[in-house]
């Protein structure tokens, strides 16, 4: 009897030991699994973006702090004042450029976590002002109480100075596009590009007054070209921020594409973007750009987008 009991006890002990070992192995596998999972999370592509976001926000917060101190020290305490006009300080403009660059980065998909961003749309119109189309675009924007950006051609502004003044007086953003849109000349060298930009700026100042300023720039044809760095370096050293686009209505993809083509193209190219920076043209030939614009605006409004000019990024 005693022997039998001892045998049973031994068997039970063995069984418990086996169970313990099994449990230990299970726990080991579980812990290893968690470690691998955490590592996989850390090395996911989102991490790089998050780091980028974090650095950007840090820089932005530092800049904001810096400017706030500046305001304090200069006793600009009247919050009702238009600080932009009051603070004649390069750092304020540096901050602006930084924020603008962030919008460009978002819009260009260089930071791809679009779903975290507020829904904003920056409609931009190139190559005006024109005698017919620009005015109609302005009417539509006014009816909808929204702002947009016009990248203008200096030579056209000389032809239609009143239209340029209307853009300005109605509170839209004005950016430099070119003086005469002559690709071969503009892109022959950075010096030629600079001369083109300065000519355009001079023209705008002659119409809008010497106080007119802008740091918004759009490369004719966009910045998508080989050896673009030397041109990008030049415009940045001149203090400009350049804007390409992440959406378009395709009005340059034919003489005057149909309304439905333009609306579909716009929706197709903007899909997936919370920050939409779109390219359209306000030249007279593009009549369907005008007639399809109200529907495009209606859809964006319905989806909860806010409309802004690129000069209003603060
Ligand atoms: Zn153009």
Short description:
This protein is of the alpha/beta class and 314 residues long. The protein has 2 domains: 2-43; 119-312, Glycoside hydrolase/deacetylase (TIM Barrel, Alpha-Beta Barrel), CATH 3.20.20.
Key structural traits:
314 residues; alpha/beta; TIM Barrel; 2 domains; 6-stranded parallel beta sheet; two-stranded parallel ribbon; 8 strands; 11% strand; binds zinc ion
Explain this structure.
The protein is an alpha/beta fold and 314 residues long. The chain folds into 2 domains: 2-43; 119-312, Glycoside hydrolase/deacetylase (TIM Barrel). It is built from 12 helices and 8 strands. The protein has helices at residues 2-42, 45-73, 83-86, 90-107, 133-143, 154-159, 161-169, 183-186, 190-208, 228-237, 259-270, 287-302; strands spanning 120-126, 149-153, 173-178, 216-217, 241-242, 247-248, 275-281, 306-307. The strands form 2 sheets. Strands 1, 2, 3, 6, 7 and 8 form a 6-stranded parallel β-sheet that branches. The chain has a two-stranded parallel sheet with strand order 4-5. Helix 10 links the parallel strand 4 and strand 5. The chain is elongated. It starts with a helix and ends in a 7-residue tail after the last strand. 29% of the residues are buried. Zinc ion (ZN) binds at residues 126-127, 177, 181, 220.
